[in-house]
Amino acid sequence: MFNVNVDISKCTGCEECSNICPQEVFKMTDSKSDPYKAADCVGCMSCVEACPEQIITVTEM
Predict the structure, then answer these.
(1) How confident is the model at residue 23 (pLDDT cuts 50, 70, 90)?
(2) What are the pLDDT digits (tens) for 28-42?
(3) Which of 61, 60, 27 has the alpha carbon at shortest distance from 44?
């Protein structure tokens, strides 16, 4: 199981994380990334690598 965090205050709403995530963990809420299905994260780190702002962290629980 993984914990997915997004620093919403720095999110630009580019949707890169949402577009690349194979598990569809993210949705855009008020033009910000929301890891609303974080429990489905498989820890592939695609979102971390894709985020141009480097504001996503994925840690194993």
Answers:
(1) very high
(2) 999 999 999 999 999
(3) 60
Structure tokens at 18: 């949402």
Give phi and psi for 56, each to the nearest 5.
Answer: -105, 135
This prediction's pTM: 0.93
Domains and CATH numbers, the chain: 2-60 (3.30.70.20)
Q: Structure tokens of 3?
A: 């914990």
Cα-based torsion angle of the residue sequence 15, 20, 21, 23 in order, rounded to the nearest 10 degrees: 120
C-beta of residue 23 within 8 angstroms of C-beta of residue 42:
yes
Which residue type does 52 have?
Answer: P
